[in-house]
Amino acid sequence: MRGSTYVAFLGTLLCSSVNAFPAHADADTNASRAHLEHNADWTPKPSQNCEHGPKTRRCWTGDLDVLTDMDDVWPDTGVYRKYTLEITNATMAPDGFPRDMQVVNGQYPGPTIEANWGDILQITVINRLHANGTGIHWHGIRQLETNEYDGTGGLTECPIPPGASKVYTFRATQYGSSWYHSHYSVQYGDGVLGGIIIHGPATQNYDIDLGIMPMTDWFHSPIFTVNSAAHHEAHGPPIADNILINGTMTSPYGGAKPETTLTPGKTHRLRLVNTGINNWIHASLDNHTFTVIAADFVPIEPFETTELSIAIGQRYDVLIHATQPSTSYYFRVGTGGSCDGPNPSASEARGIFRYADAPDLLAEPVSVAAGHLMEGCWDEQNLVPVQRTQVPRDIPQEMLVGFDTTNASTNGVHWLIDGKPMKVDVKKPTLMQITDGKWEFEGTNNVYRVGEKDTFQYWVIQQSDHMAAFVPHPIHLHGHDFYVLDQVSDATWNGNASQVDRLRTDNPIRRDTATLPANGYLVLAFESDNPGVWLMHCHIPFHVGQGFGMQFVERQEEILGSIERLDDIKRECGDWKAFQESFYGVDFEFEETLV
Ligand SMILES: *[C@@H]1O[C@H](CO)[C@@H](O)[C@H](O)[C@H]1NC(C)=O
Ligand SMILES: *[C@@H]1O[C@H](CO)[C@@H](O)[C@H](O)[C@H]1NC(C)=O
Ligand SMILES: *[C@@H]1O[C@H](CO)[C@@H](O)[C@H](O)[C@H]1NC(C)=O
Ligand SMILES: *[C@@H]1O[C@H](CO)[C@@H](O)[C@H](O)[C@H]1NC(C)=O
Ligand SMILES: *[C@@H]1O[C@H](CO)[C@@H](O)[C@H](O)[C@H]1NC(C)=O
Ligand SMILES: *[C@@H]1O[C@H](CO)[C@@H](O)[C@H](O)[C@H]1NC(C)=O
Ligand SMILES: *[C@@H]1O[C@H](CO)[C@@H](O)[C@H](O)[C@H]1NC(C)=O
Ligand SMILES: [Cu+2]
């Protein structure tokens, strides 16, 4: 963040390395009844020799704590965290309905990847499929100076062909909760995903980390089939069959509800993630509030709420105080409702949260909701990052989103950015073109240049009122967090004084995914502090497949100097080309919106 007094010094920070994950607390603590730190004093103060623990979650190690500006400073632990992820074809039945899936290490969701803040992750991805490429994106990870490990086919890599593997290596400069997922076409919708936890400081104390809670809408047809249907459907989005919570749910075909155990008297941290396809997620827990401590990878001033609205790709870290009578409670999850292609068979899916000492550990809960879950496709508002930033007020450049249904039955529908659906050639990713010295890109690559170093880049994404289908979109930017300056539905940006005045510039929320409201606009700002090729797109896989994407080529002249593995990219692209030729029998010009 600008305006902070920190200076970037990667690798020179002296800090005892944290070789183990922070231990879970088992000692009794009154912190479990800690009252809400509303309007807490978040003024930075020196925290000397402050060690992270259940009662000192704001601390990390040495001088680092939750107020440390993680855009500029992170520990250099020297620790490598190594994982191997094998992508396979499997028949599984997460909700009792058996279907072909594509999964990680034979499990769904895939294994959670964990590291400490400042560790280096080294993850080997092996493609054991027969008929698909793959590639993994580490959602929200900044990939500072490691653009080639961002996992976006056609931009930063060629897909990994069947039988091949790729080692992704990058540093966790941020901390918090996220997920990884395939970025190969719509593949993650068939199951190629898992959680990411980067341990670090937190804005409020807790005893027990319950880990990632992935939630998703779920289709019984393979996602590639649903995608083909969606591609030729000009009237309304596809309707999902169910909602999965932590990879499981009941349905008329069987299945099981997910169960989570609460330890009486303790405060639990739960990391809510919408790993979904087409639906916003609303979540609540009967008779318990959530104390929200982070939004995406950004620690925020804690606030209390009874439910949350979570767009695809977004995360909320919440604390749950197990101070209610010892029994079991429903965890309720719904979709946006009419705004996102509702889900009538699962308008309210349920998981079970059970106190460890509940008298009947097998019984179905009898808990009653305080009210219906809200519907709607919105982002939580008034989130306050504890690492404060003043964003200078400025006029954004406009990016117009359109929707083209001409020749839908033959050519399919398309989403347009400034009149063009994004198309990339997966055999010639932008990063490889740049290494070949190319400065001009195909118009349909939707390249937008970002030149000047370390300045705010302002964009307004506007839904074209006469062409856009009236649906909201979860907008995700790679390589950066963006500041969300405004979100207005049913409105047209014209840059007049009242629109500019209402831009939120005094410590606005900063995150990596935000909702573009229906028939309206979203104003964003991000800092040009990461040379590379960065995708910005709608996170609904059908929509990006239909063209809803663009790429920022940021500080191109500096990209080559910051990338170490250029030869590997060429070799990998050769492997992909060879696979295509042998699999399809021809080296056809495979130009597709395949990200
Ligand atoms: C917990 O709080 C109670 C009431 O404020 C106090 O009497 C007790 O000593 C506290 N226990 C611990 C372990 O801090
Ligand atoms: C998965 O397995 C089925 C059945 O063997 C096969 O038809 C399909 O092509 C495989 N899919 C991929 C992506 O390898
Ligand atoms: C990926 O595999 C699925 C399932 O076998 C198949 O339907 C789809 O056409 C393949 N897509 C691509 C782009 O390889
Ligand atoms: C999710 O399921 C996994 C596997 O059963 C389990 O280990 C984990 O505790 C569950 N997470 C939550 C938050 O319930
Ligand atoms: C839980 O909340 C419901 C609805 O507000 C209320 O009727 C019920 O009494 C509460 N149960 C407990 C155990 O507090
Ligand atoms: C739609 O199809 C017609 C007939 O093939 C063609 O002339 C026209 O250019 C197409 N329009 C678009 C926008 O693709
Ligand atoms: C700015 O534009 C909006 C939308 O057209 C309009 O409602 C508003 O009155 C305008 N404000 C000023 C000060 O012109
Ligand atoms: Cu979309």
Describe this structure as you would to a colleague.
With 595 residues, the protein is mainly beta. The strands form 8 sheets. It has a 6-stranded mixed sheet with strand order 10-9-14-19-16-17, with no helix packed on it. The protein has a 6-stranded mixed sheet with strand order 23-22-26-31-28-29, with no helix packed on it. The chain has a 5-stranded mixed sheet with strand order 13-21-20-15-18, with no helix packed on it. The longest helix has 19 residues, at 566-584. The chain is globular and about 65 Å long. The chain starts with 79 loop residues before the first strand and ends with a strand. The protein binds 2-acetamido-2-deoxy-beta-D-glucopyranose (NAG) (7 copies) and copper (II) ion.
Topology:
Layout: E1 80-92, E2 99-104, E3 110-116, E4 120-127, E5 136-138, E6 165-171, E7 176-182, E8 193-199, E9 208-218, H1 223-231, E10 242-245, E11 250-251, E12 254-255, E13 259-262, E14 267-274, E15 281-285, E16 290-295, E17 298-305, E18 307-310, E19 315-321, E20 328-335, E21 349-355, E22 397-404, H2 408-411, E23 414-417, E24 424-425, H3 430-435, E25 447-450, E26 456-463, E27 473-477, E28 482-488, H4 497-501, E29 510-511, E30 513-516, E31 521-527, E32 532-538, H5 541-545, E33 549-554, H6 556-562, H7 566-584, E34 591-592
Parallel strand pairs: 1-4, 3-8, 9-14, 13-21, 22-26, 25-33
Antiparallel strand pairs: 1-2, 4-6, 5-7, 7-8, 9-10, 11-12, 14-19, 15-18, 15-20, 16-17, 16-19, 20-21, 22-23, 24-34, 26-31, 27-30, 27-32, 28-29, 28-31, 32-33
Bound molecules: 2-acetamido-2-deoxy-beta-D-glucopyranose (NAG) (7 copies) and copper (II) ion.
